[in-house]
């Protein structure tokens, strides 16, 4: 039986597909390549190009594949864009989930592992953030993902579709052999932007705000390596296969690094000066986001291997150095 990975050509999806195949799973991928890359998909996975919201297309995939469980990464995830274009996010993310659950229900597939996010919590009342804390998103992206969690809950109640919502904190790094990595256009995440400066593609980094109530005034975030994240999805699948109830888990390291600390770590790893300047705050940035991740460790048996932010950055730098143009599949690159 197959595991169907929606959004498997994206950054986190492609690492998870790769990991599933390494562990002997039979994998099919659905992706419309809106932000993903065909070359990122392990060639042992069957690939279907199309949109999750297209129920005729999606039903066709479920007809062809003997789907045991679904891992759902397919979504838009750029916070500032979601502030400007909220309907785009509710359409792709939230409606995409409705379309997927309808097709799953029609095909009697009752297991889904879902990419949720720390953005569903909004501005935390206390640190570290626990799964039971209030979820009050401060942007449409987080709201679209919270709605997806709620839609899965009611589909469980009505149709018995069991879910695991994995609430990722800050994801970074790449497969250590450098064969796959992060390639977003435009790039908005801190670590790949810093490495673009290190590689000479950007003149300097702008740090968004140094007047927060943190150790050095810059935001503090909790970084998790993409392969540790991939492993958590496989553990979540096993959890559902074992017949457990639907649940949500934070995925983070439970350690916070300030933006200045990440910059210093990247300078150490790359040996490059990486010029940086201070800029104004970015709208919607919470001061500190650190996960309580003991639940995933205890219940799923999650045991992250990358506990050092230098090691995480090292793998991202290896990908950057070996793939200066990423997957090199943008129009105009060729
Ligand atoms: P990504 O953009 O690299 O991957 C998303 C993939 O989904 C892409 O390959 C894209 O082409 C595909 N896709 C999007 N809409 C689709 C649709 N309607 N039909 C078919 N395919 C579609 O993003 P990522 O960084 O790998 O993130 C994956 C998931 O993890 C997202 O759902 C995101 O919300 C969530 N997440 C990411 C982070 C992070 O730090 N990167 C943090 C928290 C949560
Ligand atoms: N950040 C920054 N400069 C950049 C990009 C990001 O200072 O060019 C900061 C951002 O304000 C936040 C942290 O880096 O404090 C992590 O941002 P990212 O977008 O990577 O992830 P987020 O925490 O928003 O999910």
Automatic annotation (TrEMBL):
Keywords carried by this UniProt record: Carbohydrate metabolism, Galactose metabolism, Isomerase, NAD
Domain annotation NAD-dependent epimerase/dehydratase: ranges: 3-252
Sample GO molecular function, one term: UDP-glucose 4-epimerase activity
Domain of life from the UniProt record: Bacteria
Pathway(s) where this gene product acts: Carbohydrate metabolism; galactose metabolism
The keyword Membrane appears for this protein: no
Top EC class, one word: isomerase
GO biological process, one term: galactose catabolic process via UDP-galactose, Leloir pathway
E.C. number(s) listed in UniProt: 5.1.3.2
Family annotation (Gene3D superfamilies): NAD(P)-binding Rossmann-like Domain, UDP-galactose 4-epimerase, domain 1
Pfam families found in the cross-reference section: Epimerase
Cofactor: NAD(+)
NAD in keyword set: yes
Reactions that this protein is recorded to catalyse: UDP-alpha-D-glucose = UDP-alpha-D-galactose
InterPro entries with a match to the protein in the record: Epimerase_deHydtase, NAD(P)-bd_dom_sf, UDP_G4E
Subunit structure: Homodimer.
Family assignment from sequence similarity: Belongs to the NAD(P)-dependent epimerase/dehydratase family.
PANTHER family given in the database record: UDP-ARABINOSE 4-EPIMERASE 1 (PTHR43725:SF53), UDP-GLUCOSE 4-EPIMERASE (PTHR43725)
Official protein name in the record: UDP-glucose 4-epimerase
């Amino acid at each position: 039986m197959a595991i169907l990975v929606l959004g498997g050509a994206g950054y986190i999806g492609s690492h998870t597909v790769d990991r599933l195949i390494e562990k002997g799973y039979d994998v099919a991928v659905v992706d419309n390549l809106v932000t993903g890359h065909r070359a990122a998909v392990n060639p042992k996975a069957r690939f279907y190009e199309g949109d999750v919201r297209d129920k005729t297309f999606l039903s066709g995939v479920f007809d062809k594949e003997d789907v045991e469980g679904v891992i759902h990464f397919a979504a838009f995830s750029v916070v500032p864009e979601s502030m400007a274009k909220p309907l785009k996010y509710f359409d792709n993310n939230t409606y995409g989930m409705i379309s997927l659950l309808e097709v799953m229900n029609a095909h009697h597939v009752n297991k889904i592992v879902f990419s949720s996010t720390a953005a569903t919590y909004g501005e935390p009342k206390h640190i570290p953030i626990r799964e039971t804390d209030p979820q009050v998103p401060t942007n449409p992206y987080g709201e679209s993902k919270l709605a997806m969690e709620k839609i899965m809950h009611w589909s469980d109640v009505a149709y018995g579709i069991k879910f695991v919502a994995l609430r990722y904190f800050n994801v970074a790094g790449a497969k250590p052999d450098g064969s796959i990595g992060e390639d977003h256009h435009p790039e908005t995440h801190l670590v790949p932007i810093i490495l673009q400066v290190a590689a000479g593609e950007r003149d300097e980094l702008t740090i968004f705000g140094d007047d927060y109530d943190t150790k050095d005034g810059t935001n503090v975030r909790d970084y998790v390596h993409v392969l540790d994240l991939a492993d958590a999805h496989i553990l979540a699948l096993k959890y559902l296969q074992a017949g457990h109830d639907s649940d949500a888990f934070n995925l983070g390291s439970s350690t916070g690094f300030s933006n200045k600390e990440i910059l210093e770590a990247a300078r150490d790893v790359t040996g490059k000066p990486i010029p940086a300047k201070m800029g104004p705050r970015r709208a919607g940035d919470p001061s500190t986001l650190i996960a309580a991740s003991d639940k995933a460790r205890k219940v799923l048996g999650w045991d992250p291997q990358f506990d050092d932010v230098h090691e995480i950055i090292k793998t991202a730098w290896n990908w950057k150095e070996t793939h200066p143009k990423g997957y090199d599949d943008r129009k105009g690159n060729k």
